[in-house]
Amino acid sequence: MAKTLDIVGVSGRYWHRLSDGRLQCDLCPRLCKLREGQRGLCFVRGRANDEIVLTTYGRSSGFCVDPIEKKPLNHFLPGTPVLSFGTAGCNLACKFCQNWDISKSREFDRLQVSATPQAIADTAVKTGSCSVAYTYNDPVIFLEYAVDVAQACREQDVKNVAVTAAYITEQAREEFFHFMDAANIDLKAFTDRFYWKVCGGHLEPILDTLLYLKNETDVWFELTTLLIPGENDSEAEIEAMTQWIMEQLGPDVPLHFTAFHPDWKMTNIPSTSIRILTRSRKIALEAGLRHVYTGNVHDFKGSSTYCYDCDEILIGRDWYELSTWNLVHTGAGAACKNCGAEIAGVFKDQPGTWGSRCQPIFSLPGQDSYP
């Protein structure tokens, strides 16, 4: 827990008072217990004026229009642009964090862009973005801001995408995911040892959230596992993880295996080889998963979408550029043009044409407005 500090922010939700006078934050499984002036591990939620407040509401580390495949989402509006933004802080402590300068920031001068929820929704429409992504750091910790933005987006028919590790409590996740149309869930490993040793958290809450998404929501979600050599890439662990996904979530949940590169506190570990990625993909496919991808490497086969029934290529991908498109739109979704097999996801009649462009947004309407 951080030392006592002066804290200014907007009222947060999901907390209660303990018998000893401390306030317990109930947003994530850390359940930080705070006295006046203290912050939680995420650093952006703290106790001020006898309540839990969010200190980053209305402030962002930046905005950029990205390809939706960068999130990564391969079965949600392929080829379309997504307006991406994040704030600062994180409720996990992953030693390999590849956005550590944002997620571990303790200096809020990084939050150089301010915007109301309405301004973000308006910018999404102005830039032609089909969706807004809450990303770069985990949106769970700025739930109040994310929910308000999501509501403004829905009023303008803009979809909402959460890129999250899903480390959230049962009581908070219902509100958070109620306003999301799609999510990429970062399943960091399949052992509690890894979660505790490397991330400072636990595996079970993430699995609980995945079961909630599958069984109690209509949110389209995909999974990502960053494979770190010697840490979470053993054949036994990949087999156990993919069996669990197959049995509990079903064969249609897309799974992305992405390559690690040395960063932050794990600079002594080598980058993930293409061999490890393709081996893991093979294990997942053999477990029965229909759509398994490789990422952070140039691998056309591992990036493209294939029909699980006839093996026809459905969506060709070269990094974020789409080529082949062999999907036909049906009343229920999309199907293979060759054999008619239903393909799970959220698809338009035709793919988007955004390609691999990344367009930074330096100014938003109302950027000097703080709620």
What would your notes on this structure say?
- The protein is α/β, with parallel strands linked by helices.
- The chain has 2 domains: 10-54, no CATH class; 59-289 and 351-359, Aldolase class I (TIM Barrel, Alpha-Beta Barrel), CATH 3.20.20.70.
- Helices cover 24% and strands 24% of the residues.
- The protein has 9 helices and 23 strands.
- The strands form 6 sheets. It has a 9-stranded mixed beta sheet with strand order 16-15-14-13-12-11-9-8-23. Strands 1-6-5 form a 3-stranded antiparallel beta sheet, with no helix packed on it. Strands 2-3-4 form a 3-stranded antiparallel beta sheet, with no helix packed on it.
- The longest helix has 14 residues, at 235-248.
- The chain is globular and about 65 Å long.
- The protein starts with 9 loop residues before the first strand and ends in a 10-residue tail after the last strand.
Shape: globular
CATH C-level class of the largest domain is Alpha Beta
- Tell me the major beta sheet: 9 strands, mixed
CATH architecture of the largest domain: Alpha-Beta Barrel
Number of domains: 2
The protein's oligomeric status is: single chain
Quick one: CATH superfamily of the largest domain?
Aldolase class I
CATH topology of the largest domain: TIM Barrel
The count of β-strands is 23
Helix content: 10-25%
Name the poorly predicted regions.
1-5
C-alpha-based Rg, rounded: 20 Å
Mean pLDDT: 92
Proportion in β-strands: 15-25%
Q: What structural category characterises the helix and strand content?
A: alpha/beta
Strand order within the widest sheet? 16-15-14-13-12-11-9-8-23
- List the total number of helices: 9
Distance between the termini: 27 Å
